[in-house]
Amino acid sequence: QVQLVESGGGLVQAGGSLRLSCAASGRTSIIYAVNWFRQAPGKEREFVAAISWSGVKTDYADSVKGRFTISRDNAKNTVYLQMNSLKPEDTAVYYCAAHREITITRPTTYDYWGQGTQVTVSS
Questions:
Q1: What sign results for the dihedral spanned by CA atoms 7, 114, 119, 32?
Q2: φ/ψ (deg, to 5) at 8
Q3: Contact (CB, 8 A) for 78 and 72
Q4: Per-residue pLDDT at 123
Q5: How many CB atoms lie within 10 A of CB 105?
Q6: Predicted pLDDT at 8
Q7: Is residue 117 classed exposed, middle or buried when 0-12, 13-18 and 19+ CB atoms within 10 A define those classes?
Q8: Residue 119 class from Cβ within 10 Å (0-12 exposed, 13-18 middle, 19+ buried)?
Q9: Could you give the 3-state DSSP secondary structure of residue 89?
């Protein structure tokens, strides 16, 4: 199986930056892609960004394009989400999820989830 652990959340002022990490362990060889999601209070979970485990392919939600960058460190089995120019509307719990299906986004199921990390952006 695969275990995912997020870290890096916190409180930041609008316009600031944070870098989230999603560390994978276990049978990481079965992962095809990792996605970041977020969920704000009272709102549905929404897709943020995705990266293939190879690091070759990426995808972003329109709301974060140009501000967020997803990347992967092969040696550390870790996926990062660099978040710049943060806005109060970026406030949410951020989750990473991994899946085995050969698609970057919208697999039939996300096989593994992390516990989430809180990001709060003050105005």
A1: positive
A2: 105, -5
A3: yes
A4: 93
A5: 14
A6: 98
A7: buried
A8: buried
A9: helix
